[in-house]
Amino acid sequence: MPIRQFAFAHGRLICCIFSNLVTFGVRSASNISGSDVWLVSFNSHDPLLDLPPLPHGKVSLLGGTVTRLDRVQDRLTIQPFGAKQKQKMNVAFDVRTHFFRDGQPSTQRDVKVGERVYVDTMLNGTKIFAKSIWIGSDAAAGSGRGQILSYDPQSRVLTLHDELSAQPVKFNVGPNTLVRQGSETRSVADLKPGALISLTFGPEQGRAGTVREISVLAQPGTQFLFFGPITYMDLSRKLIAVANESDNTTYEIYLETLPPGSLRDARPGGEVRVSAVFDGKHYVARSIEPANASSSIQ
Predict the structure, then answer these.
(1) Domain limits at 213?
(2) 0.70 cut: is pTM over it?
């Protein structure tokens, strides 16, 4: 076979093999001839080689000390500030995790047992996953959200059931901690058991995280009005989720007190207006109506 014909045939063979390897990235291919040009494009995410993107979910900040580091399983164990010795948390990480030391980009090699860290955590399936890990005493402040279990005015320790933590987490409420409810300034007397709060905290003070600001989101018995599309429905549990437009937050609302058939016209994606009361555990609907309705179902 002449050298030119052999080179061309050899090139065709390589192109055919290559095209099979990038099936997911092929944009177009015309009939093969001596002058054909194959156009191949690659997706930014390869479903065969790359990890899937992280789910969009709530992120909660966890502060503590690294007690164990498994670089084979990509997992670290953290002793949360203020928690008991046995109340440790396992947190997974991988190449999607961002690492920072004193505010500067870093790598997982900078994480060491005994160091203090703050971790932006989220649920990834059934595991607690580290979206970002901040290493060092200058770790950036973060935020958390949960329900108050207790507040001790003598020691000024706030015990919180965090959304992602299976164990209570304790924080110091300092004299400069700001307490708000909406646009109004409140006092620590409003930190009552059962209240839902969000908080901002920074580097630890002693064994507990130092709270900078607390926002009281809901007290038991408080009434709320939600408006937005239904994102989830489970009629067997009498539960819907509404993406509230006023604060861009999705709320689970129980329909236990509404009469049967009150959701006949409701469907995922449809906008509704819901009046609900926070009972200390859930938001319970008192009335619900389609966004374009003139009368509510009660």
Answers:
(1) 143-218
(2) no
